[in-house]
């Protein structure tokens, strides 16, 4: 069996297990129950060789590879990035999210929406997602991402709704205290590696 075939088998089994745990109620408890399964897949670094998931080059800081999706719209991506990559605070348009590290470190600032000041969510916690850990967000979750450390990143990002189907996503400009609508065209392109 080739690495691609072995990866497809492991990814599909893991994704289906996670989707069955979360079901149609992505609660904190269900996300916590599902996290170890994504972490176990991320431990299989042999399934994600650099030749199949190259790092970005030039001015590009990250690359996104679709490795699984299903008829209900859930999608799992392998994302490579260079240290210093950043995404300002954003939500996922009503989708749950789960991130586990194959290699490298991502700092996640986790926020709560502030109904009194919609443009300035409240920082709740900062976590570092690195091998052996995972981060999850409920559909209301807001987070900012930064690639930290010196090692290139390869992380698995799993969503209840694929990127292109996520409802209107909000980005937060904390300095200006305002929100912007995330445009898919600003995201770049997604390479299909299913």
UniProtKB/TrEMBL annotation:
Organism equals Hwanghaeella grinnelliae
SUPFAM superfamilies attached here? Answer: RmlC-like cupins
| Taxonomy of the source species | Bacteria, Pseudomonadati, Pseudomonadota, Alphaproteobacteria, Rhodospirillales
The protein, known as: Cysteine dioxygenase
CDD domains per record? cupin_CDO
């Amino acid at each position: 069996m080739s690495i691609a075939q072995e990866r497809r088998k492991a990814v599909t089994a893991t994704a289906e297990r996670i989707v069955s745990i979360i079901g149609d109620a992505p609660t904190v408890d269900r996300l916590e129950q599902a996290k170890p399964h994504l972490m176990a897949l991320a431990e299989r670094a042999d399934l994600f060789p650099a030749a199949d998931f190259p790092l970005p080059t030039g001015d590009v800081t990250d690359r996104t590879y679709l490795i699984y999706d299903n008829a209900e719209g859930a999608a799992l991506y392998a994302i490579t990035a260079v240290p210093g990559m950043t995404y300002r605070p954003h939500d996922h348009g009503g989708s749950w999210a789960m991130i586990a590290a194959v290699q490298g470190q991502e700092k996640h600032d986790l926020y709560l929406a502030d109904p009194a000041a919609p443009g300035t969510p409240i920082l709740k916690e900062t976590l570092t997602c690195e091998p052996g850990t995972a981060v999850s967000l409920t559909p209301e979750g807001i987070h900012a991402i930064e690639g930290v450390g010196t090692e290139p990143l390869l992380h698995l990002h799993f969503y209840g709704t694929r990127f292109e189907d996520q409802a209107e996503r909000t980005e937060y400009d904390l300095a200006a205290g305002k929100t912007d609508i995330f445009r898919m065209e600003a995201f770049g392109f997604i390479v299909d590696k299913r």
